[in-house]
Amino acid sequence: MTVPDVTVVVAVYNTMPYLTECLDSLVGQSIGHERLQVVAVDDGSTDDSGKELDRFAQRYPDVFTVVHQPNSGGPAAPSNRALDLATGRFVYFIGSDDHLGEEALERMVACADANDSDVVVGKMVGTNGRYVHQKLYTGNRDVTLDDSALPFTLANTKLFRRELVERHGLRFPEDMPVGSDQPFTIEACVRARKISVLSDYTCYYAVKRGDASNITYRANHLARLRCVQRIMEHTAVLIPAGPRRDAVFKRHFDWELTKLLQKDFPTLDADTRRQVGEGVGALVDAYFTDGLRDGTGVKRRVRFGLARSAAVDELTRAIAQETEHGAPPFLLEGDRAFAAHPGFRDAAVGLDDRYYEVLGESVAGRLSTSTRLVSASWEQNGEDLSLTVKLRVGITGDASSAVVALAQGAMPKSADKPGARKLPEDTPRPERVGTLTADAAEDGGGTLLTARFPLAPTRTKRGVRLYVDVAGSTYEIPVRTEGRPMPLARRWGTTDPHRVAANTNPKGRLVITTAPLREPKPGVGARLRRTLSRSIESKSKRK
Hints:
The strands form four sheets. Strands 1, 2, 3, 4, 5, 6, 7, 8 and 9 form a nine-stranded mixed beta sheet that branches. Strands 15, 16, 19, 20, 21, 22 and 23 form a seven-stranded antiparallel beta sheet that branches. The chain has helices at residues 18-27, 49-59, 76-85, 104-115, 162-167, 181-191, 221-238, 243-259, 270-287, 290-294, 298-308, 312-325, 364-370, 413-416, 524-542, and strands at residues 6-12, 36-43, 64-69, 90-95, 99-100, 119-127, 141-143, 159-161, 195-207, 330-333, 336-339, 372-381, 384-393, 395-397, 403-408, 421-422, 435-440, 447-454, 460-470, 473-478, 490-492, 498-504, 510-516. It is of the alpha+beta class. Strand 12 (372-381) and strand 13 (384-393) form a beta hairpin. The protein is built from 15 helices and 23 strands. The protein is 32% helix and 27% strand.
């Protein structure tokens, strides 16, 4: 009997009608039936999935091996059962609600043979709103866990050399309801001689079911926490402490653990919050190195630090307050900036300032949403006119670097979405013109800036923007009006009359427009009156 090139493992539980498209994509593979084995294990389905598998097995008996077993509670047990029956040189795993590109298996096997690879990662995309990380797929190349985005692509939907799998006895932990593929994938990648990425062809289409019933979307906080603990403990045994382990664990802090501390955390019951906080805190204490800490955004870093300090009340309050009111103000102290989340410099919490400090990250979006117009008005003194604007800004402390200016030209496209931008280091910013005063907001939630600057009698259209230094970088922030009433247009000047108007542009930003008021040329009115008079006389004569 000929050994197939690849065995495709399909763990199946209640995935109709998606299962049909999955199986059709397998029998339609360009690699051909003689090079293909499909082992599908029905894990106690209660819909028609089992019948559909039997239909394909009856139609393609030389390709399909179908097993029916009682439900095990997750994909690990059926995947292990299928591995025991696999005979191919390579083994490939596919979710039973997903499907493959027509040439996927042929291309991946050819890549493995040409490069002597033990693992091949074919390009994977999401459909129906399914998110799939894409940074790994920037070209066909060889990668490792610590020199690429591979740690953010740890699903088992890859081609594995079966000799590697059997030599190391790789199997899926059957007591993990979610994430059971990660220990398998991580260990295979650690043990592999070579890992190749195939980016020039879409091999895998990951489907989010219409009812979001994929197991990934159904697990609760504690179940997900236990699974992440198991994954990280398993990885720590395989990879010694250091940058290589940090590269893998960055994924787990940025994704899995972050998701446990999102806006739904305050809605959990008190005991669950305590357990989740303690569990996350233990992982932070064990694996959140200084390098990982300093490379994590301040919002996540604070939440991890509060969990580590067992400050569950402060953690709950930090998440709830940011969900309801947005990011807290930044405290500026010279060239350092701190996010004033709950627990900041609280001796009872005992968390180092470093957790709250802005460290080399862009905060443009948070500054933009916290900067808004309080009022705008004109001040006229004879021939002179000035604009006074009052802004509320999400900063406290040293606001001496702030400048409010009328900036010419549109914001760059890169800044359109967040509404603010971090200026390149060599970009000059406007000098302060007029006067600027800063006062703490009464509620302590920011700073009130009052800027007064003269208007020149010219034809211009300029946006009101704030420039402020935060943690060593300068940010340009357009001022949003948020429905604030605009002052009436004003005419000023007698020798050179001009008109000035304050408007809200389509992006909701404050724009000031000045333009000269020009008198009609001498004699134009008289000529117009004569023309009208002649027209009336002509009509009268015709009557």
